[in-house]
């Protein structure tokens, strides 16, 4: 079977696992919301919160990403399924794309909830003029995060100390997404008088990031998961 | 399949220490030997999961020292782990593993029937099954794969009498259809009756492999 | 000698730099000796 | 740097020494002696930066060397991944260079923040160059962690080579993102030709001696890695023999 067919199978399987186990809904979403509440405790100032809301939303996304990626690969290693996928002759590129796709879908749900939390808790206001930019930002940034998450999650999957290794490897890499997505979101929301036109250059960076890690991951995933 | 003086390393330890073994197509070979002798490693090596450190290994005409990926899609491995997704149902699991090798609906249904997975189990999540039922599910996934080389690690463990009979019949049918079968087992009486040849694995080497 | 303002910072940076390199070097040689003890002498292509 | 004294057990101080590395080590040591002499005592204070300029004689060379080291790691990793030049030697050079690079980058960060305290009144500022450097530091610490994951030498080499190339991919992205993030940053007062002759000479000594030091460290480190690989292989031989006794 070609890589795309495998990718669809793997993505459908991952989403079905999520649908049956409800780990994202019952555990990750509450965790992410809790992080948002903790930020409010730490900053303790309504104006500051509104000012930094875009950054906090993306920061909470990064933390949740770590959890979701761990879960995504725990499913594969719990009963030797990753080995079985390799013995099944499944192309690593297909596994990579499929797991990225499933991660993308889960992150999209997560981000919707976090954005809602920001509106409620941080008094973030959405403007009609920034909607196109906001949606584009989310698609571009989330795609990049999904690729990076799958790439490093696969590397750490079989390793000793994977729980600590994954954040060490992944957080420096996603820094450009944190910066770019935060700035673009600020522009879309009009935080501190920013206008949507300020945000579009950042979209370029986010797309470049997603493209590079998408291609890099498709090529390299096989040698990272191979024992 | 032909292994010559193969050494394979697992975490710095030579799990295989110069194993040589030749198996012809259609044979059912039983591997026996004490725990830690290297039976599991031998099976994983043949499946292309374990790297060949030294020596030569050719499986199904593919040189494992050059390309392990080529052999993988033609073998089926049932290891200690079942390779199942605990949150998915029996039906979902078998269908997923069948789909990865492009098996048809009918083949998938037939393989489930073959392993005696009754309809009432179809919609039960694997995580809620007993060890024996999980083993049956994993075997059904294996049957759906239509492998040319079957590698089974303690397949009888956890199965009830009916399950063992079904497994034996399945393996005989596969061998009759031209597939090669290698079974590692401690259940000598049962597996011995099944096997066309018995070899002993001791200290990472194969004895009686002539 | 030129009078030095901020002398603690300047000297501190030199001490940290040279000390760090020295520590690394000592550790590296210790590892080399430890490894070499477990090997026969002839297996050193560079000597 | 224990170059000249010989230990009692072996004729040379380190099993990784050769005549060439000894000469190189002596040259580096002499260079560093000069650097301390000129950097701390003989060169004058800068008009603007006063005595803070002395830190730059170690800060600038170590930053350059760190970047060079990571460049070498990237190139050796590519050489390993390319089938025609595949050799574990490249992997060891990549690992040695990354480790020395992390050392120099650590020195860069410490000396840089001490310099910043003098010149700007603060240890750290979020300008593009500093931020990129900090991220690079953490990235290569991660790379070194991946090298320690275990498996056969070939697995280690392949995995870490991929990681090194991913890091090369990441560096420009991080750099440009932080550059756009904080477009205003401190002027670099040093690089505008305001240094007089003796100051430039001190900086030059720093560059030369640190480069020699880098080469010397990488040669040794990579040989230590080779020794460790041989110890592994030998351990495998012994374990193989023991395993064969079992049967």
UniProtKB/TrEMBL annotation, chain A:
Chief subcellular location: membrane
Membrane topology per record: Multi-pass membrane protein
GO cellular component terms listed in the entry, alphabetical order: plasma membrane
Transmembrane spans: 23-43, 49-69, 128-152, 164-182, 202-225
Keywords of this entry: Cell inner membrane, Cell membrane, Cytochrome c-type biogenesis, Membrane, Transmembrane, Transmembrane helix, Transport
The keyword Ribosomal protein is assigned to this record: no
A Pfam family assignment: CcmB
Ranges in a coiled coil: none
Keyword Cytoplasm attributed: no
Single GO MF annotation: heme transmembrane transporter activity
UniProt-listed GO biological process terms: cytochrome c biosynthetic process; cytochrome complex assembly
Location relative to the cell: Cell inner membrane
PANTHER family xrefs: CYTOCHROME C BIOGENESIS B-RELATED, HEME EXPORTER PROTEIN B
Family the UniProt entry places it in: Belongs to the CcmB/CycW/HelB family.
Role this protein plays: Required for the export of heme to the periplasm for the biogenesis of c-type cytochromes.
UniProt name for this protein: Heme exporter protein B
Taxonomic source organism: freshwater metagenome
Lineage: unclassified sequences, metagenomes, ecological metagenomes
UniProtKB/TrEMBL annotation, chain B:
GO molecular function: ATP binding; ATP hydrolysis activity; transmembrane transporter activity
InterPro entries per record: AAA+_ATPase, ABC_transporter-like_ATP-bd, ABC_transporter_ATP-binding, ABC_transptr_haem_export_CcmA, P-loop_NTPase
Example of a GO biological process term: cytochrome complex assembly
Name of the protein in question: Unannotated protein
PROSITE patterns (UniProt xref): ABC_TRANSPORTER_2
One Pfam family hit: ABC_tran
Keyword check for Acyltransferase: no
Organism of provenance: freshwater metagenome
Keyword list, A-Z: ATP-binding, Cytochrome c-type biogenesis, Nucleotide-binding, Transport
Family according to the record: Belongs to the ABC transporter superfamily.
Family matches, as CDD domains: ABC_DR_subfamily_A (cd03230)
Annotated ABC transporter domain residues: 1-210
Automatic annotation (TrEMBL), chain C:
Record keywords, A-Z: Cell inner membrane, Cell membrane, Cytochrome c-type biogenesis, Membrane, Transmembrane, Transmembrane helix, Transport
InterPro entries: Haem_export_protD_CcmD
GO annotation, cellular component aspect: plasma membrane
Bilayer disposition of the protein: Single-pass membrane protein
Transmembrane segments: 6-30
UniProt signal peptide: none
Record Pfam families: CcmD
Main location: membrane
Compartment list: Cell inner membrane
One GO process term, biological-process aspect: heme transport
Protein name: Unannotated protein
Source species of the chain: freshwater metagenome
From TrEMBL, chain D:
Any one Gene Ontology molecular-function term assigned to this protein's record: heme binding
Subcellular location, record wording: Membrane
Pfam family, one: Cytochrom_C_asm
Gene Ontology BP term (one): cytochrome complex assembly
Keywords: Cytochrome c-type biogenesis, Membrane, Transmembrane, Transmembrane helix
InterPro entries: Cyt_c_assembly, Cyt_c_biogenesis_CcmC, Cyt_c_biogenesis_CcsA/CcmC
Membrane topology designation: Multi-pass membrane protein
Transmembrane segments: 20-42, 62-82, 94-116, 128-149, 161-178, 198-219
Protein name: Unannotated protein
Cytochrome c assembly protein domain location: 23-182
GO cellular component: plasma membrane
Family: Belongs to the CcmC/CycZ/HelC family.
